[in-house]
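Translate structure to sequence.
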């Protein structure tokens, strides 16, 4: 499932966190929420960057997508 589909299923606090910390490592608890909302972590998921013990990174493209949302724009659908 792509970011466009799981993003609206996140708690508003989680979306606010991702906007405020855009480009930072996503903490494990938030990763769990994303996967619970349908964000399947697969090697071909365009919105994923790298993952490690601290959490995971979003791809540059996902960071740009979140920035567009934060700016009140409608990002293009992937």
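Result:
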């Amino acid at each position: 499932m792509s970011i466009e589909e799981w993003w609206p299923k996140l708690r508003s606090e989680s979306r606010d966190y991702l906007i405020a910390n855009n480009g930072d490592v996503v903490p494990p608890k938030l990763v769990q929420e994303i996967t619970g909302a349908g964000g399947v972590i697969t090697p071909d998921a365009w919105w994923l960057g790298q993952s490690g013990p601290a959490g995971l990174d979003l791809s540059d493209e996902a960071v740009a997508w979140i920035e567009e949302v934060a700016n009140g724009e409608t990002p293009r659908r992937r």
